[in-house]
Design brief:
Layout: H1 8-12, H2 16-29, H3 36-49, E1 53-57, H4 60-70, E2 78-82, H5 87-94, E3 99-103, H6 114-121, E4 132-135, H7 147-157, E5 160-164, E6 172-173, E7 176-177, E8 184-188, E9 202-206, H8 209-219, E10 223-225, E11 228-229, H9 240-250, H10 253-271, E12 292-295, H11 300-309, H12 339-347, E13 348-351, H13 359-371
Parallel strand pairs: 2-3, 2-4, 4-5, 5-8
Antiparallel strand pairs: 1-9, 6-7, 8-9, 10-11, 12-13
The structure holds pyridoxal-5'-phosphate (PLP).
Pyridoxal-5'-phosphate binds near residues 61, 164 and 202.
Amino acid sequence: MKISALDLKKQIAPIRQELDAAIKEVIDNTSFILGAGVDKFERHVVEYSGAKYAIGVSNGTDAISLSLLALGIKAGDGVICPAFTYYATAGAVANIGARPVFADIDEDTYNISLKSIERILSRKNRRMPFKIKAIIPVHLYGACADMDGILKLTRKHKIKVVEDTAQAFGAEYQGKKAGTMGDCGAVSFYPGKNLGAFGDAGLVLTNNKAVAEKLKILRNQGNKNKYYHLVLGRNNRMDTIQAAVLDIKLKYLDLWNKSRQQVAQYYNRNLAGLDIKLPIVPVYSTHIYHQYTLRAPVSNKAFVEHLQAKGIDSRIFYPVPLHLQKCFKYLGYKAGDFPQAEKAAKQTFTLPIYPDLTGEEKDYIIQSVKEFK
Ligand SMILES: Cc1ncc(COP(=O)(O)O)c(C=O)c1O
């Protein structure tokens, strides 16, 4: 049997006519960037998320950079990021000239560790030649970071919060949608995300009117009215075709996330008792299982090789923590700096999880995990 990590054909087939009609409308209107189609999608995201403002942008990475810029983060400012996340979290910081400051993760949730943040913020004899101005908690794999704990610290230290909601759009923290608790929430609609476009797209959530207005200017070359450029902006606009596709798919997101939770519960029931650690859902958060992540007792490599040999597209997210990536060498970190991030990179691996997995496929995956020696 061959089971891919994700099967978008199966997701698209039942809603194909709706999607085709929405794309046709954009082509007929020949309005391809921003405009009424993007405004409509932004309104629907506001309704869905409960955030006051939603600003459609080019992708999730730009959503993070734009959020930081709109919050006044400048070149040379320090921005705390978890050491275990996708590259873009810290890449978006470094690419506006700010400095990623890495923190370790929690052993159970894989999200940023409060203790590690506290340690960074309270370093008395900080000989850092920069000030920490913001933090980016990532809601990794689809469950929220400990936002109450994080917000308590950030209020005390007066730093801004950009929630990296790339993997958790639709997840809830004590009834509040991920991305709506910090100063900004950055969302990715990369095609493989739980809500995926047909190309690159992203969005910023915020409750602050002034920040929302800045974001609209920054995403569109720094102008409010055409050809009058108020600030040095960027070309980070959302394509109208992507907004049209996302507006259709948004109606199904909760249903799809619920199916993912059912697949996860089925895996949990059937994998319990093995010598692997199952995903932990923190009491304060729902989990929308962008990834279903297991922890092997020693090494993930052999597990993934075994599953791949069985035709199952198991993956390692992420094999190298960010503080050990070549591109961040200039920051001066070394092996051993963030033990939990390093351990997670060595031990964790994923199983395919998406709403359309058949019973036969799920059982084959479970059986194959159990066969691992
Ligand atoms: C945690 C995280 N942050 C940021 C991003 C960047 O999003 P995008 O690929 O839309 O730029 C992604 C997704 O790729 C991600 O998983």
